[in-house]
Design goal:
By secondary structure, the protein is α/β, with parallel strands linked by helices. It has 18 helices and 8 strands.
């Protein structure tokens, strides 16, 4: 019997390690593109440029951009493009045009309009001055960016400002907005010299999959050309995010960003239309407004200022996959080791189902650990974000280890009452207490995110990886032990909340959003686990 019990966990460990290796090999499979996103032999027409880095944000009026950092950026961008598009002259950005001249770059200069009339007049006067100082550098002026989309100005007031700027400059003047808002406000067409439209397939009301993004951009461009004949159309913003939450079938990822950018640029070359990519560098500050996805539209990363997709190198969603796979294998081995050490202290033969449960927990954790760490690094923003996602990841790592101990020793999943309620004289074990803490952490964070997807879902990330790491071991522990006693009220309330939220999220996000479906399924599994919980004693 001892020989059989030894062979069983060893065989399961080998299966677990093999599964982890196979899944990571598949996840890391690189893609090959017909054209590199940044082709050394074909310079970009134009790219949006915001100079903020190292915690800088235009949302803080005291932020001031230094000439040194702009010089570093523009000397780098001059190697891949002939043109940059700016959006404002605030926070010291009025120095960009002069530095661009030295770097040999053209500038599509932006004026940031809002409901603040004083700021509008100040921006206009400075940009008018810049066009006179750098007539060979500033090739056009964009009077307002998505101000109609934001509802901060009427079309009549905007048209009047555009005409005022046109009377003061000698370069072409345009306005930039999402393509639908040009159709809704056709009077702007008469005021501008050319039309600048934003086509962002990911952000469409009906999100477009990455593989259809280039076709969508070209289709909208042709439709706008038919609606507004006689004036050139510049695609002022288009691109794809490399990280963030799914919207229906639109998945932000490194490979999808590379594919979309490559295909749009190829289409622009074939059909001879102008396109400005958004954007040069990742802008973490945008996450405050748009969630994780807002900070990852750049061709260069924000920290190292390094090109994400160097020509000739394979493009993978997980370039560090060997380290991630190795970390997952270590977690799997530790999970089996904890079970083995527990068994040595309590020499008896667990049921085969207990070892299968240990194997399932170890394999799930081993596969998802690298993804969960990756998501935490990308999705954590601010102290609160790091605490929340760090705590969930810690719960995901601790859960398979603690549940392995409980499975082999024959203990059940503790209830909230066991952790927080009155106790009798016997001492609670440290491992049981820690398992209870991990359970409460997962339930609280899971419930908070579940409610977020009901009441404010647009910019929220799906915590599927770390939450799955935590919940699967809980579920196996609950299913592995017969449940006796009375269902605690707290568990019943959380179970109901999670179940209702899961159903709503699945319906609201759509069947193409596998991140939402996966997260919803884990909410359901956690709800079932809590619903099955029983308190050994109910205080009188």
């Amino acid at each position: 019997m001892e020989q059989i019990s030894f062979r069983t966990p060893l065989a399961l460990l080998l299966i677990s390690l093999g599964a982890i290796a196979a899944v990571w090999w598949w996840l890391a499979t690189p893609i090959t593109l017909a054209r590199a996103p940044i082709d050394p032999s074909a310079r970009l027409q134009c790219v949006s440029y915001a100079p903020f880095r190292n915690g800088q944000t235009p949302l803080n009026p005291s932020t001031q951009i230094t000439a040194e950092q702009v010089e570093q950026d523009l000397s780098q961008l001059a190697k891949v493009t002939d043109c940059i598009r700016t959006y404002s002259i605030e926070n010291g950005q009025d120095i960009i045009a002069g530095i661009a001249k030295k770097a040999g770059l053209k500038v599509i200069q932006g004026i940031w309009l809002s409901s603040n009339r004083f700021k509008n007049l100040n921006q206009i006067s400075i940009v008018v001055r810049l066009t006179r100082e750098y007539p060979d550098t500033i090739s056009a002026v964009v009077v307002g960016n998505e101000v109609l989309l934001r509802g901060e100005m009427t079309a009549n007031d905007l048209a009047a400002i555009i005409r005022s700027v046109k009377s003061q400059v000698t370069v072409p003047v345009t306005y930039a907005d999402v393509w639908e808002y040009w159709k809704k406000n056709r009077e702007i067409y008469d005021a501008v010299d050319f039309i600048t439209i934003h086509i962002l397939p990911y952000w469409e009301d009906l999100p477009i999959r990455a593989k259809f993004a280039a076709d969508h951009v070209d289709s909208i461009r042709k439709d706008m050309a038919a609606v507004f004949p006689g004036k050139e159309i510049l695609i002022g913003e288009t691109g794809w995010p490399s990280a963030g939450r799914m919207r229906e079938g639109a998945l932000p990822s490194r490979t999808n960003q590379a594919r979309v950018v490559s295909e749009i640029l190829t289409r622009a070359k074939q059909e001879n239309f102008r396109v400005n990519l958004i954007e040069a560098y990742d802008q973490p500050w945008k996450r405050q407004l748009e969630g994780t996805v807002g900070g990852y539209w750049g061709l260069f990363d924000a920290v190292r200022r390094a090109l994400k997709y160097p020509a000739g190198e394979p493009i993978s969603n997980f370039p560090l996959w060997k380290w991630q796979m190795g970390a997952g294998m270590v977690l799997s081995i530790l999970t089996f080791a904890v079970a083995g050490l527990t068994l040595r202290r309590r020499p008896w033969t667990p049921r085969p189902a207990a070892w299968i449960a240990v194997g399932l927990s170890a394999t799930t954790g081993g596969i998802l650990l690298g993804i969960a760490v990756d998501k935490m690094l990308y999705e954590s923003y601010g102290v609160g974000g790091w605490v929340q996602w760090g705590a969930l990841l810690a719960a995901g790592i601790a859960s398979p280890l603690l549940c392995a101990n409980a499975l082999v020793s024959g203990r059940s999943l503790p209830t909230f009452l066991d952790l927080l309620g009155p106790r009798d004289d016997k001492q609670r074990s440290v491992t049981t207490f820690l398992l209870g803490i991990v359970l409460v952490t997962a339930v609280l964070i899971g419930s908070e995110t579940a409610l977020g997807f009901v009441f404010d879902p647009r910019y929220r990330d799906f915590p599927f990886a770390a939450l799955t790491m935590a919940v699967i071991p809980f579920a196996t522990l609950t299913l592995n032990r017969p449940q006796e006693g009375q269902r605690p009220l707290a568990e019943a309330v959380f179970a109901s909340l999670l179940m209702i939220s899961a159903i709503y999220t699945g319906l609201n996000e759509g069947r193409d959003n596998w991140q939402a479906l996966w997260t919803g399924a884990i909410y359901v599994l956690l709800a079932v686990t809590l619903w099955r919980a029983r308190a050994a004693r109910i205080p009188k």
